[in-house]
Amino acid sequence: MLKRVLIANRGEIALRVLRACRELEIETVAAYSEADAEALHVQLATESVCIGPARAADSYLNQDALLTAALATGCDGIHPGYGFLSENADFSDACAKAGLTFIGPSGEAIRKAGSKSAARDLMKAAGVPVTPGSDGPVSSVEEALAAAEAVGWPVLLKASAGGGGRGIRRCDGPDELPAACAEAKAEAAACFGNDEMYLEKLVLNPRHVEVQILADRQGHTIHLGDRDCSVQRRNQKLMEEAPAPGLSPALRRAMGEAAVRAAEAVGYEGAGTVEFLVDGENFYFMEMNTRIQVEHGVTELVTGVDLVRQQLRIASGLPLDMGQEDVSIRGCAMECRVNAEDPHGDFRPCPGKVEFLHFPGGAGVRVDSCLYNGCTMSPYYDSLAAKVLAHGATRLETIRKLRRCLEEFTLEGFPTNAELSYEILFHPVFVRGRCTTGFLDAHLAELLDFSRRVEEKEAEA
Ligand code: ADP
Ligand code: ADP
Ligand code: MG
User: Which atom of ligand 1 is nearest to the CA of 87?
Assistant: First the structure.
């Protein structure tokens, strides 16, 4: 087993990793930026090292600083969390070269799965259905036009290196293509330092369903069921649940098997997610995320499997301690992401000082957050303040529990989207488990009208 792990991340995921390490009696080193000196995970770690200024490029993305910190503090492993360097193939390789265990897949596997356009080709070869789209990247507006005409409008232009819903543009016809190309390329260059684009046919009113997988170094790959992440705002996830509601058993089985094939096709190791679009009984591969995901907790609640613990075990060279037949799904779990943003001000991020904080509790309730009373959320990083999760025997029980949790949840000091999530939990489309990825954008105005009384909404639901 690993002995000492450097946590190359911050916020709630740094704390989540720290907790799993402590339970396995692995020591932790918090690598933190100047902006995070007071962070909870820094206070709780065995040791901590400041790796640079607040700007991510100078700290959490500074590979040399992280490697030096890990070696200087006697670490044998590095956990990258999500975002930052978690899907960086060069960083995985650099860790290996320095004699450190990267808690994630090899650089080679990340390279294969991480370029979203290259991954499509691999998946096709492995017999996994993909969204109709360009064969590989499109390098000019003319190439994009030819690919779009071949698959049919509307299309999405997508950044090969994309993530977090960035570098994606919809295009309804040839006239829109040049501007969409320019915009998507500029955003991708700014976010990912890589403006390679590819193109997919826009699937109308799909659901986003993803499958969690685990693979060990001994060649065993299993999946831990699916999650529905269709509640999105501008391609960014807001609420997630496991299992995905209303999938037919045949579709569910086919997607689980396809996810395992996808992982095997890239020589995957560790925890990962295969994302699909679902359209009726059809499903299409969208991308593979080669890291722990923000919404992993809902899978943990319904399977009872600690995914970060599994990551640490796998990276330590241990074989999976369960087979596919040992995985069973119990009840339903839901998560809402509470972001420091103003839903009434175009979702402008507005982090600040936490003046008062109260988290809900009780049976089947989990809150993942690095916040505490009096701490300050930094404007330098993403605006995720807390994840509130509930687990119940049935979907309706879980919805009611999560409503209760959000009634209790109190965060004073800056605006959040918590009230919006609360409203979603009463919306008939959501309550019936019928959300597609367009749900939130289509119903946003009505959901932001908080004036209706709770009793009325319960009657509607
Ligand atoms: P998940 O599927 O795990 O929810 P998201 O795509 O929502 O993943 O991204 C989770 C977080 O990871 C985002 O809030 C963002 O901070 C970060 N992230 C994702 N992709 C990237 C990327 N390519 N570069 C930087 N940060 C990213
Ligand atoms: P990211 O790497 O930013 O997470 P994804 O490829 O996973 O990007 O897409 C993000 C979201 O965009 C999806 O969850 C889905 O809502 C939407 N999307 C992506 N591709 C398509 C498509 N071909 N048709 C319809 N919606 C899509
Ligand atoms: Mg995605």
Answer: 23
